[in-house]
Every structure is written in C-alpha cells, then in structure tokens.
C-alpha cells in the first residue's frame, strides 16, 4: 500500500443481472480480509467464480457430453489471471471482478497493449507486470503466453454462447472483458416474454448465418403450428429488432441481429476454421 496507495482488488457476486446490491464480496480493506494480496485474492475468488457456473448437461452433435462447465471454468481462470497480471496498479481504477447469473466481467486499470483481435487470436503477448507473470508461471497459474484470449473465445464458440466483449476506455484508462455464460436465446428469453415459437426461431437463427422463411418452415416440421403463425412470430421479432431482414421477395433473408463485437468474433472463428483446413 505504501508503493501503490490506490491498490484495490474487488470481487462482487449478484443474485440477478439487474441487482444493485451484492450478495458476496471479497475486497482489499474489508475486515474479513485483513491481509489480502494478489495471490490470496486469486485463491479466494477463483472457486467463487467456478461455483457460479452451472454444470449443465449438454450434448454435442456426436451425442457425447458437452464441455460447457470445463470451458467456462478455464475461461474464468484465464480472465482472472489476465486482470491481475496486466493491471496498471498505479491507476485510479480498481481491479474489479463482477459475477452475475448471465456473465462474468473482469475490469483492470490500464489499456490493452495488443489489439483486441490479437488478444483473441493469441498472436502476441506484451506483459505489463513481468514479475507477477514470472511468479504466476512458477506456481503453475499462468501457462503458455498469449493463450488466454483464444481459450476465452473457444469457450464461447464451443458452447454457442454470446461472444465475449472487450471494452478499452482510453479516457479513464481501464479494460473490461465480459464473458457470457448464456446464449442469445437464454438472454432474450429472460428479457422478453417469448413463446415457444419465438424461442424456436431464435434458437434456429443462432445456429445459422442467414435463413429464408422456407428454411424455417422446413426446420419446424409442423411442430410449431401453421406457416401463418410462424410468420407472425417472425415479424414480431423483426419489429422488435431481434431479427434482421434483408432483400425482398424470394431474395429475402433473415439473421439474428449481432453486435459489432459478435461480428468480429465470428470473423476470427472463420479464420481459425480456414487455418485448420489449410494446415
């Protein structure tokens, strides 16, 4: 504290995405944690993050057990290490970890020393605190350099979750990484009162790049009512800004509306797929 008078580490868990009051907290200066440092903070907070991940039973396309829990656990660890290892501890912003039902959010003082795309692809690693990084490697917390971004991205890609979001605030000098625990359907279902037809449409839209109305009808296989009913629900989703529509007549295509961050992530995943085919 003599060397870094603004040194602050915070972890806060919330019962709901919209809650203001936390239900669990680990913080420098709290009487419950009188000697909290970077290492003890890591050891206390990581199990709490893991406890916030549902051990869902999901099946892959080949009917084997999915990797949701393992992937999210690894992504949370990598993001926690990243926040602690790359923090600018002379900054005015605290290292803050937020744990909500739908997402984890990791904020650390200091900007990113590589581009967002380079971080997610694992192309370059420029370490801000080399001594912390060295100590983390010695005890097996930090592994291969520049591996955190790809692991975070793959956890989302493998489980069809919303794409991780990275925000760099140059004015206030901090970086935030949000890791979603849910897919688009879950998030929208919590936000809006969707019926089973709308949930079917969103689920289908999240698994394909674009689709035509006839594709939707063929996929429904008569399970979700008449064509007019499905078209009505589709139009509601379009009017609500959830589904985007382009073209006219037979050239009309629909797709789930994506943020710029999600589009960038899809571009990186497509590059991965291309590299796999080439090599």
Q: How would you describe the overall organization of this protein?
A:
- This protein is α+β, with helices and mostly antiparallel strands and 279 residues long.
- Helix content is 42%, strand content 15%.
- The chain is built from ten helices and eight strands.
- Strands 2-1-3-4-6-5 form a six-stranded mixed beta sheet, covered by helices on one side.
- A hairpin with a 4-residue loop joins strand 5 and strand 6.
- Helix 1 runs antiparallel to helix 2.
- It starts with 8 loop residues before the first strand and ends with a helix.
- The mean pLDDT is 85.
Number of strands: 8
Overall pLDDT level: 85
Question: What is the first-to-last residue Cα distance?
Answer: 50 Å
Q: Which regions are unreliable across 5 or more consecutive residues at pLDDT < 50?
A: none
The percent range for strand residues is 5-15%
Radius of gyration: 21 Å
Order of helices and strands: EEHHEEHHHEEHHHHEEH
Global geometry:
elongated
- Please give the order of strands in the largest beta sheet: 2-1-3-4-6-5
Helix content bin? 40-55%
Annotation keywords:
single chain; 279 residues; alpha+beta; six-stranded mixed sheet; two-stranded antiparallel ribbon; 15% strand; elongated
Topology:
Blueprint: E1 9-13, E2 24-27, H1 38-51, H2 68-85, E3 95-99, E4 103-109, H3 116-121, H4 130-138, H5 148-158, E5 165-169, E6 174-180, H6 184-191, H7 196-207, H8 213-220, H9 227-239, E7 243-246, E8 253-256, H10 260-278
Parallel strand pairs: 1-3
Antiparallel strand pairs: 1-2, 3-4, 4-6, 5-6, 7-8
Helix pairs in contact: 1-2, 2-5
């Amino acid at each position: 504290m003599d060397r870094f008078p603004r040194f602050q580490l915070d972890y806060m868990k919330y019962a709901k995405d919209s809650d203001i009051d936390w239900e669990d907290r680990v913080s420098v200066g709290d009487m419950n944690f009188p000697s909290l440092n970077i290492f003890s903070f890591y050891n206390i907070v990581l199990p709490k993050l893991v406890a916030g991940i549902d051990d869902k039973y999901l099946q892959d396309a080949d009917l084997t057990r999915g990797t949701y829990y393992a992937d999210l656990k690894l992504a949370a660890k990598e993001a926690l290490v990243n926040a602690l290892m790359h923090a600018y501890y002379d900054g005015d912003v605290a290292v803050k970890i937020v744990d909500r039902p739908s997402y984890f959010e990791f904020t650390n003082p200091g900007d990113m020393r590589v581009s967002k795309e380079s971080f997610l692809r694992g192309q370059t690693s420029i370490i801000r605190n080399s001594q912390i990084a060295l100590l983390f490697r010695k005890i097996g917390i930090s592994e291969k350099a520049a591996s955190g971004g790809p692991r975070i991205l793959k956890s989302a890609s493998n489980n069809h979750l919303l794409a991780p979001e990275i925000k760099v605030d140059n004015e206030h000098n901090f970086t935030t990484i949000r890791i979603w625990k849910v897919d688009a359907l879950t998030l929208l279902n919590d936000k809006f009162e969707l019926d089973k037809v709308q949930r079917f449409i969103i689920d289908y839209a999240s698994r394909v790049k674009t689709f035509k109305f006839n594709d939707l009808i063929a996929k429904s296989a008569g399970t979700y009512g008449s064509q007019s009913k499905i078209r009505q629900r589709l139009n509601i989703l379009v009017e609500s800004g959830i589904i985007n529509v382009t073209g006219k007549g037979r050239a009309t295509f629909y797709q789930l509306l994506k943020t710029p961050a999600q589009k960038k992530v899809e571009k990186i995943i497509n590059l991965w797929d291309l590299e796999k085919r080439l090599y």
